Amino acid sequence: MGSCSKDGGCPSDYIAVAISLLCFVLLLIRATLPFLVHKVPCPKGSSFWIPVIQVFASLNLLLSIVMSINFLKFKKKHWWQSCYLWAVWVEGPFGFGLLLSCRIVQAFRLYYIFVKRRMPPIRSYVFLPSILLPWIAGAALLHKKKSLNERCHFGTRWVIPVVCLHTIYVAALVGFTGAIRHIEFRFHELKDLWHGILVSTSAVVLWVTAYILNEIHDDITWLQATSRCLLLIMASILVLAFFSMSSSQPLLSKMSLRKRDAAEFETMGHALGIPDSGLLLLQRGPAADIDPNEPLDKLLLNKRFRQSFMAFADSCLAGESVHFYDEVHELAKIPINDPVRRIYMARHIIEKYVMSGALMEVNISYRNREEILTTPDLAHPDLFNNALNELLHLMKMVGSSALHHTKRFLAALKSLAKDYWSSMFFKKLREENIDGSNEQELEMVTGWNYSPRLSCVHGEDDPFHEEQHPSKGSSTPQDVEQQQQQQQ
Prior knowledge:
mainly alpha
């Protein structure tokens, strides 16, 4: 025990290393298994890279403790085994400091989105490096002043500044978490933040206690071996408690890891408890036939038609606009006096459809995109109205280049609509409507109503008026052409 307490390789050291390895494997499973089970596409932006950075920082923290406190018995002959590399740089700015900074970024975003009701003024990829700068400056100073002794421990005069730096960041995390404590979160974001604060505070206290005991009683061999073992185990618990997907990917964090429950929270609307069918007017008997001559926005109020057209658009890899309409339609079902759920849904729509480079980015003008991203109220009932009208009518674009882009998109939508009327999706929908046992589903949405003003696209600008599939009680393509010639 006497030699291994200084040189490493005690039985307790190998036990602690095994525990840390197990905890990191569990962390990887938590981070990747939901994607593997549900086949969810990887999100873009901070929703993806902040959890990835957390995993990276967790690996650095555990590896730096193992390498700097002599857990494994080996001689330090190479530069990459240097105490300053592991104990100062990897453990500080790229380990514990990076973990705390990621959580502060997540708490900062939650504060602005749910308390201020607007998107954060600073992007995460700018804010994170900014708050990490004090850690980098501190590591550079410690390296320059040669603050470590032969046992890779900080000198006495450096302990207080290092502890103060850790305490300041924990206090900042406590401040942001306290500012959002009154919000009724639905995905355990607040609970996860408090867990991280509790475990990080315990880790700092344990580190200070272990340092003091080792400096005062450096002749007690079992104390040194036990304290470093507990320190690594505590760090292993820290990385598991700190990792959370509720702030960055709330919908994924709510999904069950069992495949048979994969559809339990298939959409954000389901997870927020929005009724799948909304307020329905159910009519027994044969459902009304779908008239291709009806305006697009009126046809989309029919849930069966919307789902059929969405499935067809997805099969053509062109379903972003229809999905956007459907999500906004779901948002309109949430009462105005329930701002938390409205903000959840609005943030989901923004991150999935509106942000540049989003997973299903829709084709809207820069003006409407910025209007949404800079809104002072994410719970506003008319937040997406302009973007929705633009996608429905394709008539309100600014600038020559934008107009050219609109014409291309309009032609694509016309082609998509023309193909839909002759597709198996529409034929299947008509067969279901003819069946007398089916029920008609017309959704009456509170907060977003159909009006004639929203159906002002006619003639050649309406994709549902060109070469349409003939339907019962509707005009044939020849009749439509004659009407268009008469109008011209």
